[in-house]
Amino acid sequence: MNNAFEQLFVVFWKCINNPGGDTLSRDYILITPAKNEEKNLSGVADSVVEQTLKPKLWVIIDDGSVDNTSVIIETLINDYEWIKTVKLPPHPRDITFHYAYVCKKGFEYALQYARETSISYAYIGLLDADTILETAYFEKILQKFDQDKVLGIASGGIYLQNNGNLQWEKSSVHLPAGSGRIWAKACFLDTGGYALEPSPDSISNVKAILRGWRIQLFENIVAIQQRATSSANGLWKGYKINGQTAYYLNKHPLLVLLNVLFLSTQRPYFTGVPYLIGYFISFCTRKRQIDDKEIKDYFWGRRLKDVFKRVI
Description:
Layout: H1 4-15, E1 28-34, H2 41-49, E2 57-63, H3 69-79, E3 83-88, H4 97-116, E4 123-126, E5 131-133, H5 137-147, E6 151-162, E7 165-168, E8 181-184, H6 185-190, H7 200-210, E9 214-225, H8 235-248, H9 253-263, H10 272-284, H11 293-311
Parallel strand pairs: 1-2, 1-4, 2-3, 6-9
Antiparallel strand pairs: 4-8, 5-9, 6-7, 6-8
Helix pairs in contact: 8-10, 9-10
């Protein structure tokens, strides 16, 4: 928490118990990290601009792009006064600490800009620069928040296009996806904002659960990714890093093996191998793990129990 006002906001939100009501507005702010996304960003921007419920503020973080991403962003800023940007210096693409750093910079700028310009909002969103949304995406998601005042984090289902057909990417069957996710503002503040850690979305999910918020993925609300999750630098490298992150978060070995089995049943079938290699190397070399005891305890104990209950 940054101040007493934020604490009061959290208490106020949790005291509301009027499902289906319009006690708070559906206004939201949105951030998008973008690095060398000239092929995808225009389509993503079109899907945001055409939303039935548009953001009050959209901040696109240009992570040192060397292609035409910056040109696309500048055009958007000139066309829409509610779109802003943060430009960061060049840095190698990285889906661990640096990705979290880029997103955190975007959230910090967006929250500060909203305060300085008196933008009122009740929700905070994160959208990757390779994800195209159905036209009523945010309207449908925020309707779910209207119906459930304990809902803290939600997203639609992530889909890939395969030969003209949509294929649901089942990387996290019931947990909110990283892209296209929305936090209730009170939940975002209650859980400490966006963590500067690998897998910040997973950490955010855990913090929300432990503080009594409900989190959910809604499969029938569609977000289409232009490339598979963790594939920006190739699936093998991406899933190896995911395995390293699993060790960093202190995931129990049985939890890791269950994930390997799950990945082995999903196309392209081989991703469980680099995931296991990444975890095993980190385990054998005793690499540094997250300092947050709350997160470590959750992934070693409670998460494993929850998964076994779901399997049974």
